[in-house]
User: What shape does this take?
Amino acid sequence: MKKSQLGLPLEYKKLPEYFDAHNINDDTDKINGVIENLLRERNVQTVLDLKCGTGSQVFFLAKRGYKITGADFNSALLKIAREKAYNEKVDVKFIDGDMRTLKAGAFDAVITIFNAVGHLTKVGFEKAMRNIYQNLNNNGIYIFDIFNLDAMTDSTVIDMAMQFQKKVNNTKIYSTQCSIIDRENSYLTSYDTHMIQKNADKPKRFYNKFSLQIYTAKELQEMLTINGFETIAQYGIDGSEFLKDRTINILTVAKKK
Assistant: This one.
């Protein structure tokens, strides 16, 4: 695999209308609550979500009084987010843009959640860090999460396999995913199968493969330091204590120096 070709989940590329069905679950509000607590502890008022998708964090935080702007490179997902804002009468701004290059202003905090940075190469992530630095006020904070390479044992990767079915209006979605780990290059590669049936029509089957660039906690700290940040804290994605070999998903809080 070329370092610039990690791929993307199918719902980013071909099936944006099913993005929420695949990505929003019972844990979403809990994770959003952890992020909100971290923002509140640091007296944050303005937030830029640089990988907002259909707006999970944007709407959660906007309804709790934060002035938040959402951005994403995927225009189809932003269209859904804007429709939600209109239907829910939530006054938020959405911008088409790439986290590596978008200049949206100066904010108290920038967030990129749900392994968003994993879709970038290491070079791309460092470029994004430098751009995020430019979008922050002095002493602003950057909050992001990514899978923890140190915790990716074979048994952990096997246990991450999942299957689910959901119904969206008149459409049933059946999905499975299993993954492999390339520790030498720090890639977590997932193989997805989606079967989608509208009404009683013949179902359509989709296959997809994509990789995430993942990191150790120490590696993240070093990258942040090089690119102008100080690591304040690292947690589990649920706000729990970070354990080097056990925490599956690292939630990092960094401050602009």
